[in-house]
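Sample intake sheet
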Amino acid sequence: MTQKIKLDDNEYEVENLSDQAKATFASLKFADTRIQELTNIQSLLQCAKNSYISSLKKEILSSKAGFLIGED
């Protein structure tokens, strides 16, 4: 099966593109892949940040209350 790219409303087969267009297409694929990787990393870091905030809130409340909150 041939690889295709759709630009605007036109579809092109990658194998029929010029060498320069193929190189540009490869760069586009690389950029898309890297953006997805960075988006995934951002999501993981946001989860970690939320966990750190939650832990910090518990620690602050525990120190004010004088006993541990949320610990078994």
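Comment: The CA atoms of residues 22 and 35 lie 20 Å apart. The mean pLDDT is 91.
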